């Protein structure tokens, strides 16, 4: 498989869940993958798994909310691979909480990771991609960025911001052939879904049964969507939002 042959991709939050599956798939499709994560053990394990299958990958520890860490990631990637073609701004955290019980510290922390992290990724990586003649950026939003939900004021606001940021940046860099799109998963079978189920006193299996397709999505299914947007298969697509939620937002 070679949809990303000779491409270099950065995947934030690449140590678990959707980020892990995307890193593995990118490598399988020929990309050189820079996995970043705040959890060094998880990130290095993904890199070792890629290398065990003859792939090429490197790990850089990163807090996406810190500008100096983004500078380190860009410099490290260019020093190792000499180019950057793809960025998957995947890292994020999830808080479900009543509005009046949400602290300012919680608001600032989640916004710093979910929104500032995406902003900084775009700010520091897109100019490199543009200088090389173009490429693809995929930002992880959520169905929570498309519609409201109880106890999601914090998380939903962050994902709504990512949605519009994506469109703004896509227009700004279209002439430089940098495509920027957002993905909007519903509950996917990851730790976030387990946390969501626990918060409402149910199970992930029951959450999935409420979806029209009758189950939760798998991280590998989201990774395939990200691959499409990263590859030349989506060469005429930018500034768009891609919902992957088993039909959950299709009805009222």
Mean pLDDT across residues: 97
Q: Can you tell me the overall shape?
A: globular
Task: Determine the structural class based on helices, strands and strand pairing.
Answer: alpha/beta
Number of strands: 7
Ranges with pLDDT <50 over ≥5 residues?
none
What's the end-to-end separation, in Å?
A: 40 Å
Helicity range:
40-55%
Reading the helices and strands in chain order gives EHEHEHEHEHEHHHE
Rg, alpha carbons: 17 Å
Approximately how much beta-strand content do the residues carry? 15-25%
The description of the largest β-sheet is: 7 strands, parallel
Q: Please list the strands of the largest sheet in the order they lie side by side.
A: 3-2-1-4-5-6-7
Number of helices in the DSSP assignment: 8
Summarize the structure in words.
There is one protein chain. The chain has eight helices and seven strands; from the N terminus they run E-H-E-H-E-H-E-H-E-H-E-H-H-H-E. It has 252 residues and is of the alpha/beta class. Helix 1 crosses helix 8. It is globular. The model has no long low-confidence stretch (mean pLDDT 97).
């Amino acid at each position: 498989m070679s949809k990303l042959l000779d491409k270099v991709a950065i995947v934030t939050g690449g140590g678990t869940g959707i980020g892990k599956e995307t890193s593995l798939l990118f490598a399988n499709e020929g990309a050189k993958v820079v996995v970043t994560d705040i959890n060094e053990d998880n990130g290095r394990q993904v890199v070792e798994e890629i290398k065990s299958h003859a792939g090429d990958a490197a790990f850089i520890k990163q807090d996406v909310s810190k500008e100096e860490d983004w500078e380190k990631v860009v410099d490290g990637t260019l020093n190792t691979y000499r180019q950057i073609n793809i960025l998957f701004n995947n890292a994020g955290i999830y808080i479900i909480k009543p509005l009046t019980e949400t602290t300012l510290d919680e608001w600032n922390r989640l916004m710093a990771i979910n929104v500032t992290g995406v902003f900084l990724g775009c700010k520091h990586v897109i100019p490199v991609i543009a200088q090389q003649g173009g490429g693809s950026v995929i930002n992880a939003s959520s169905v929570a960025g498309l519609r409201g939900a109880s106890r999601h004021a914090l998380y939903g606001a962050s994902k709504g911001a990512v949605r519009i940021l994506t469109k703004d940046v896509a227009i700004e860099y279209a002439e430089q052939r940098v495509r920027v799109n957002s993905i909007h998963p519903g509950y996917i079978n990851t730790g976030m879904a387990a946390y969501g189920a626990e918060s409402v006193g149910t199970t992930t299996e029951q959450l999935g049964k409420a979806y029209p397709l009758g189950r939760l999505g798998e991280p590998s299914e989201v990774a395939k969507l990200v691959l499409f947007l990263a590859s030349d298969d989506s060469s005429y697509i930018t500034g768009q939002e891609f919902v992957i939620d088993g039909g959950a937002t299709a009805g009222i």
